[in-house]
């Protein structure tokens, strides 16, 4: 009977009003329904019902990761800084990183993502090609000191992530591990009941080449993506690439575009720019008249727009000058339209209101423009309102007008290649007896964020409305009346529990049926079974939380219907 949770013994307090600071649906509802509680900005406590939902998401993720041969491990979140210094990310992450010292004064950090540590573990454990391929994963607490932790558990400073890492000796092996993850992610998000799109993405601070994001369309999302109604093109607006055609440039210099192959690597880009490809990302973002006016720290990519604005209008902006941009094709780009280079666009973002923005506009394909001139090549007067792609812009593949939507990034998969293996000299002995450099992938799912995304996508005006697999219970039994109703409710709950169902039963004494009904809708278990008026005859009412459909059933019929 362990499956029956009596609300009279559950630590829950539902709220009629939205928390004062809540802007998004998931934040309001998860707090009001007693799933989570704010401990500090971006730091959340998971209460009994919330913990069940979080565990359900983890279970689905775990089952599908196991199914592709992933081996679960648990690495520390508290990490000495050395490995992150070696990769350059101790600096690059900037303020995003939680740094701390131990009693001896040694530097530590709280892990934001674990490429470095996993690389070291595999270096310790695997010495031969026979030890590979391997896929390792963990479901673990991550720490990022986000600039604006908002939207409840959607963007925490402490949050749960499933991160996995693949290790292979060949590029084909990596491609296979990537495809395995991609397929597993599709199954995971389908099982979770999350409507999602797979879009091309930029690799950002991870480095590496190919990368795709799993986006859950929702107005509360902080990402913008384009979707083509005419073909299968879909991309994060950060990664939209338009075909480059030579511009008819006049001004201080010819506008140049890179003529790159379809999926150029960092090396191709570097070769074109005539610089060394560097594994360590640099900070320079935009130079105006030779002076650096905006510096973005890779990893958060936020720049001070005020500072940029002072310089932008009349100046010559050298967008791509040197190695600073190598490895960061996502930073900024010229918008290359049918007439050649038309303008440089910046992504408008809610952050703009507070003075910072993503100055990106990317370009995973590496189509960069050189010697872009403000005023000639892009509009400068109104740049705060400009978005990187607008609805109706032509699809780079087929020319159909693009759709633009908001979404929540719920997963991100990367082919890292040999970036971290190079940093830590991760080799195994190959078939020919010679050392072979290992190639890696890294793959993340926001486990706690998925709870928020699900709430955003499935809630209605009455409250949360979970898909069954994720819900904190299969059925919510409501005792709507006095002793007789409570007795029937508890009896049917025991039977449902014995039949293997997870039951939440509202047996709270002294709580009116009206309050119990409202709470049951707020809590969002998919089926609600009410012991009410006709309890004496052994008749219950079964309600579907989503459709509101009701039917009267005997106890046996109800049990048969629900099991
Ligand atoms: P975002 O663009 O939203 O900041 P990210 O691109 O920085 O996310 P990744 O480094 O790709 O995140 O991490 C993998 C996954 O972890 C993301 O796809 C997302 O689902 C989740 N995630 C990242 N940051 C947070 C956060 N602050 N709170 C909750 N989940 C997060
Ligand atoms: Mg981030
Ligand atoms: Mg992102
Ligand atoms: Mg990401």
From TrEMBL:
Domain of life: Bacteria
Broadest EC class assigned to this enzyme: ligase
NCBIfam families registered for this protein in UniProt: PRK09194.1, proS_fam_II
The protein's name in its UniProt record: Proline--tRNA ligase
Naturally occurring in which organism (per UniProt): Streptomyces laculatispora
Catalysed reaction, written as an equation: tRNA(Pro) + L-proline + ATP = L-prolyl-tRNA(Pro) + AMP + diphosphate
Family that this chain belongs to: Belongs to the class-II aminoacyl-tRNA synthetase family. ProS type 1 subfamily.
Quaternary structure (record): Homodimer.
Function as written in the Swiss-Prot or TrEMBL entry: Catalyzes the attachment of proline to tRNA(Pro) in a two-step reaction: proline is first activated by ATP to form Pro-AMP and then transferred to the acceptor end of tRNA(Pro). As ProRS can inadvertently accommodate and process non-cognate amino acids such as alanine and cysteine, to avoid such errors it has two additional distinct editing activities against alanine. One activity is designated as 'pretransfer' editing and involves the tRNA(Pro)-independent hydrolysis of activated Ala-AMP.
Gene: proS
Compartments it resides in: Cytoplasm
GO terms for MF: proline-tRNA ligase activity
Keywords of the record: Aminoacyl-tRNA synthetase, ATP-binding, Cytoplasm, Ligase, Nucleotide-binding, Protein biosynthesis
EC number: 6.1.1.15
Major localization listed first in the record, in broad terms: cytoplasm
Domain notes: Consists of three domains: the N-terminal catalytic domain, the editing domain and the C-terminal anticodon-binding domain.
CDD domains listed in its UniProt record: ProRS-INS, ProRS_anticodon_short, ProRS_core_prok
SUPFAM superfamilies: Class II aaRS ABD-related (SSF52954), Class II aaRS and biotin synthetases (SSF55681), YbaK/ProRS associated domain (SSF55826)
């Amino acid at each position: 009977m362990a499956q029956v949770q009596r609300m009279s013994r559950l630590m829950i307090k539902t709220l009629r009003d939205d928390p004062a600071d809540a802007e998004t649906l998931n934040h309001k509802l998860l707090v009001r329904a007693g799933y989570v509680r704010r401990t500090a900005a971006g730091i959340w406590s998971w209460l009994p019902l919330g913990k069940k939902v979080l565990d359900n998401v983890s279970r689905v993720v775990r089952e599908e990761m196991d199914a592709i041969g992933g081996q679960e491990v648990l690495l520390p979140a508290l990490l000495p800084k050395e490995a992150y210094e070696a990769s350059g990310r101790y600096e690059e992450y900037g303020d995003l990183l939680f740094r701390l010292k131990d009693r001896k004064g040694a530097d530590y950090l709280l892990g934001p993502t674990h490429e470095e540590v996993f690389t070291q573990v595999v270096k310790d454990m695997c010495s031969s090609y026979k030890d590979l391929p391997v896929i390792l994963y963990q479901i673990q607490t991550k720490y990022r000191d986000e600039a604006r932790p908002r939207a409840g558990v959607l963007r925490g400073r402490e949050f749960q992530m499933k991160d996995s890492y693949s290790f292979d000796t060949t590029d084909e092996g990596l491609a296979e591990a990537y495809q395995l993850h991609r397929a597993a992610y599709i199954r995971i998000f389908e099982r979770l009941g999350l409507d999602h799109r797979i879009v091309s993405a930029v690799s950002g601070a991870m480095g590496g080449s190919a990368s795709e994001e799993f986006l859950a369309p929702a107005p509360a999302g902080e990402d913008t993506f384009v979707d083509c109604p005419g073909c299968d093109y879909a991309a994060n607006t950060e990664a939209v690439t338009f075909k480059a055609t030579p511009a008819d440039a006049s001004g201080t210099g010819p506008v140049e575009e890179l003529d790159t192959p379809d999926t150029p690597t960092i090396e191709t880009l570097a070769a074109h720019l005539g610089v060394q490809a560097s594994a360590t990302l640099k900070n320079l973002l935009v130079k105006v008249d030779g002076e650096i006016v905006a510096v973005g720290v890779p990893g958060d990519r936020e720049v001070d727009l005020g500072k940029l604005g002072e310089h932008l209008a009349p100046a010559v902006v050298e967008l791509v000058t040197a190695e600073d941009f190598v490895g960061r094709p996502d930073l900024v780009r010229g918008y290359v339209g049918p007439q050649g280079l038309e303008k440089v666009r910046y992504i408008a973002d809610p952050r703009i209101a507070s003075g910072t923005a993503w100055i990106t506009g990317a370009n995973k394909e590496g189509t960069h423009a050189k010697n872009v001139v403000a005023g000639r090549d892009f509009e400068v007067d109104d740049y705060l309102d400009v978005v990187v792609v607008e609805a109706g812009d032509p699809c780079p593949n087929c020319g159909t007008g693009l759709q633009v939507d908001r979404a929540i990034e719920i997963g991100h998969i990367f082919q890292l290649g040999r970036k971290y293996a190079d940093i830590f000299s991760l080799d195994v002995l190959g078939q020919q007896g010679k050392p072979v450099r290992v190639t890696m992938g890294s793959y993340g799912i926001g486990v706690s964020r998925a709870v928020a995304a699900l709430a955003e996508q499935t809630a209605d005006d009455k409250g949360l409305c979970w898909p069954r697999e994720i819900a904190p219970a299969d059925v919510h039994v409501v005792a709507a009346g006095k002793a007789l109703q409570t007795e029937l409710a508890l009896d049917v709950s025991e039977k449902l529990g014995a039949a293997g169902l997870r039951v939440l039963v509202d047996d709270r004494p002294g709580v009116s049926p009206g309050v119990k009904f409202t709470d049951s809708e707020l809590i969002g278990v998919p089926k609600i079974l009410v012991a009410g008026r006709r309890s004496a005859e052994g008749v219950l009412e079964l309600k579907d939380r989503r459709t509101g459909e009701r039917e009267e059933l005997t106890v046996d019929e109800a049990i048969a219907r629900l099991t």
